[in-house]
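Notes continue from the previous slide.

Worked example: a multi-chain complex. Inputs as given:
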Amino acid sequence: MEITSIAPWILLLPFLMFIFLGLTAHKFSGQTSAKIGTTAFGIVAILCYYVAGRYFFGNFSVLDANGFEVFNKTGEIYNQITVFNWTWMQMTENLTIHIGFYLDPISAMMLVVIATVSLMVHIYSYGYMFEHGHFDEGMSRYYAVLSLFSFAMLGLVLATNIFQMYIFWELVGVSSFLLIGYYFFKPAAVSACKKAFIVTRFADMFFLIGILILSYHTQTFDFDQLNADNAKHVLDSFSITDGSRGITFLGFPLITIATFCIFLGGAGKSAMFPFHIWLPDAMEGPTPSSALIHAATMVVAGVFLVARLFPVYSFAAPEVLNAICYIGAFTALFAAIIAVAQTDIKRVLAFSTISQIAYMMVALGVARFGNHESELGFTASMMHLFTHAMFKAMLFLCCGCIIHCVESNEMSKMGGLKKYMPITYWCFLIGCLAIAGIPIFSGFYSKGEILTACLENGYTAIYVVMTLTAGLTAFYMFRLFFHIFHYEENPEYATSHHKPHDQGWQMTLPLIVFAVLTVGFVFLPGFNNAITATRTYMEMPTNWTVEGISIAVALLGIAIAFFLYYKKNEKPANIMAKCPALCEFVYNRMKIDEIWYGITRSFIFGVICKSIAWFDHNCIDGFMNLCAWITQKVSLETKDAQSGNVQQYVWVFIMGVVTIAFLALY
Amino acid sequence: MDYSQFLLMKPEISLALTLIVLLIADLFMGEKSKQYFQPLALVLFAAHTAINFCDCCGGSCMAGQSEAFSGMYITSNIHVFVKNMLNVGTLLVFLFSFEWNKKENKEHIAEFYLLMMATLFGMYLMISCGDFLLFYIGLETASIPMATLVALNKKRNESAEAAAKYILTAGFSSSVMLFGISLIYGSCGGSLYFCDVVKNFTAEPFQILAMIFFMAGVAFKISLVPFHLWTADTYQGAPTSVTAYLSVMSKGAAAFAFMVIMWKAFSNIDVKSTFVSWTNILWWIIVITITVGNIFAIRQKNLKRFLAFSSISQAGYIMLGLMSGTAEGMGSMVYYILVYLFTNLGAFGIISNIEDKSGKVGMDDYNGLYETNPKMAVVMMLAMFSLAGIPPFAGFWSKFFIFASAAQAGEYLLVFLALANTIISLYYYLLVVKAMFINKSDTPIATFKSDKMSLIGITVCTVGFLFLGFISQIYEQIIAWSFGI
């Protein structure tokens, strides 16, 4: 099969599915829609694997959008291929918006991630949504939106230009909004979906500003042109030379502003501080969709964005990369601390997601073009993106199984579930070991590389923070693990006639698939063959000191968690009693939400909106009411002119002629 | 004499043939075969429409403008296009009235078709005239059968009254216009050809007086204020399909002819005061027409009367296309008529459909229509939105283009006043929507099933006003054809 002929279907099929399922929602039962949606996505997944497989391991050439024959590899270097590039809108002579299909190592990798996680979630959701008492109502809608999301996410990673990315960026935002608000009858879900949408939209505003500045100066949206030859086009457009930072605005180099704004868009989607506030609340959505969107795919869009423009960042705005790495490090530590104090199991995972995405950001932030050591961060980041997607999706899906049995998100309702749910137990354990960074599990490799990258590039402080975070991560994940599966068994289980149990195959199969991927990651072909900043083989330096320390820290964290939470005891309560204020503060997510609310309420609503509303209400409405009143009055008064009397009609006619003649002639 | 010039009159010839064939068929059809008359008429007229449509769009486009009979008859692509528009509109009216003819109008089916085609023939002549005399003949050919059509429902007093009012006022306005024409003949060098008139037209007071008399006569047909007073009574009393025909076809044809004559006969390019004189008059007429139409429409409780006033204000918008005198202005006017044709006929189609089924035409009767006939209510709502000019419906684009053309001519104040008026119009168009969707009724119009013909017609109209705006080629083609009218 030709890549060019199947590529469009990867985007078209989920989109058509969305339309089909959306329009036929009331015609089919939920199960039928689910089966149709899953089958269709199965086909998409096969296409994705095929394209990615051919790209990485095959040898082929295509006629690209410009009519040149392009091979997937030249020697050892993987080429970037624009499979097709359809003109959507011609803005100016130079500036055109295309919708296309861009194949390079990172987008091919993302194809694999999205296909795997989305397919698994499609299958899992069948069990989850079906048994959860939501047979028909809304299930078609759920699957329709899943298809929309898959379409949008695939379009985002395959974008040939930054504007296409922006379009799909908003589409994933919309589908995230729809899925978080899926249980629209729950007020918490409604406010959560609004919050997610507004916060990410607010960040996207900066993204758009960044795109506009960048494209205004470079006169192009295309990644190919922006990134080509060490971002030479961008450097020229902003007249950046060795000695000068080019065009400035308010004292800042304009390129810095543009690229930083673009990063802020990514920070919104990827929940970096201070835009992280929406992600924990987004857990109100159905758990499978949290696994897909808020753990594995959409939230890494920001990381993907920075990776996609990495040459621009590295050559034209290295100071922004520095900023990214500090923001990332802060977010990682900050979210890990909050995760320690949470009691809702999905919230713990949400904060852990924020923290882990921050790892990826840090890794990108420390990376630069240059030699193998400096480029390591890029590969490490992408590797962590991949491994994290797998094990975090698995953890979320495990949570879904648990919540399904316990019917609560609170840790206090759980405990001692090990003997009831063995498969979930083992999968969850594998996930926790992976995220903690224990060898042979996937997380160990990617996290180790990130830490190595930090240290090798001279970011020692960041390295220390990230190692500390790794310890915290191990601690809070195992706190969660022990709390759920050991600790003290909830006495209700034994007496309940509805004992907790492992779920049906639809829900267990995805867990096992992810567990296998997490354990077997080490056998996957090396990421350093293709997914590198230079798109060619790269030596991966391994610093055994770093690895050793990280293992030690992780084990320490696990040990503390074991000590505190394996069996029911008074120690955690005692520790918390010593500093109640701090615990409360951390439990309330360090009050960041309140700060945002405060700004919104007192300043935006109180000052800006109130005054505008007053003006609107009194001046504009008043004027309009006056006009309407006059119109009504005139209408009422003149009604009698239309009398139905023909003599009068003729009289008016002739008077009209005379008046006009009079006015025209004098 | 060169007989090949008859070939230029293809639309007229095919219409006349249709008319004659139907006339003969009616004469010789027996009582039993009378029921086939209506299908026959529809098929023949549809064939006439199709043939002319294919002729217009099928490649045999003329280059520029052609004359026949020493300039008496003028035709070009845009003329043929307008005639095609009228054909389509008439066909739609035929579709809407199919059921009505079967039930209410059994005895005069043939008259209905024949008279309507006769008026259409008159409109063809109005559109293609190159001379005041032919224009006058066309106008009268169009309006005298019209009076009969209005009176078709002769057992109803209202219908007869409407016809009487129409024929009396029409007679009066024709006489004023004829007087104007005779003054023109006297003051502009003893010729009634547009090309001769314009050479001698220097905007002397006497000539302006003649021009005003002429304008009043045409303004009567388009129902511009203050020559509009017959409109509401006639529209209300006439059978609904005739009202639809009056409000769209009659108005559209007269407006197009008006535009052509004003620019051809009264606008001497070298003497600027010639067209300044009449654009000034028109400026005031437009403002008054739009405003008065809107203000009266607010108070109407009868939907036919309501649409009469709405059509008066729409006529004011149509006249905006005259102000610039550029191809854009003329093209956007034709485009406006095209969109207005689909939208207004769609609205009338629904009204006549409901009237057929339930006999109700009051705005209050429409309360709760959405509950019983949701599809009708939605289409009616879309038609109202399009008439009000809400994007993305075609009505928005047509208003947009016509405002843009007037703004190009520097008429900013006029455009502003017209825009302000669209807000008023939005109010009363939304009244209908409110009645259908929000108001509750104890005795709503019962759920009914429309006949196929009306459904086809309504569907065509809906597709028209939903999608015309998205196909930019249509507008561009009209503009391209409008050069050199």
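Summary box: Strands of chain A lie at 61-63, 69-71, 73-74, 77-78, 81-90, 96-103, 248-249, 252-253. Chain A has 25 helices and eight strands.
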